[in-house]
Amino acid sequence: MATIYRKTAKGHSEIETRAQRLSPRLRSALILIDGRRSDDEVRKLIPQQADETLQLLVEQGFIEIIGITQQAPVARAPQAAARPAEAAPPVAAPALPPRDFATTRAQAVRLFTDMVGPMAEALAMKMERARSPDELRPLVQTAQRIIGNARGGQAAADYGTRFLN
Fold this sequence. Notes:
single chain, mainly alpha, two-stranded antiparallel sheet, 9 helices, 2 strands, 60% helix, 8% strand, globular
C-alpha cells in the first residue's frame, strides 16, 4: 500500500513565504509533496531520515494524507516511463497540440523537480512565478542545462524538446 500526501494551506504558505523557517531538509521534502507521488517515491528523493521527515511534516500540519492506494512498488524508478501514475499526462503531452500556459508551466516545473530533486527548488520557484511564455523560456533553458549536468545530455535534450518547442 502506498500513501499519497498533499500540502496543506500551511504547507503552501510556507513554500511561498518561508514564515515558519523550516530547516532545509524539511523544506526540500515539503517541495517534493505534490498529491501524486506515493510515500515510497518521495522517500527515494529524500536523502536522509525520510520517514522522520514525512512524519514531522504531518505532525506540524504542512502535509496531509489524501489517499492510500494499492499501487505495486515501481522497480524501474529511474526511468521516466516507469512511473505511470504520476507521469501519464506528461508522457502523452508531446503528441498533443500546445497546452495552455499554466499547464505547460506546471509540467515543466514538475518534471524539472522530478529529475533534479531538492536542488531544483530555487529555479522551480522562479519558473512558477513566470507569467508568460516569454518569461518562462529562459528559465526552462536554464533548467535544461541543469538537467544536462545532473542527468546527461539525452535527458536535457528530451526536456528541451518537450518544453522549448
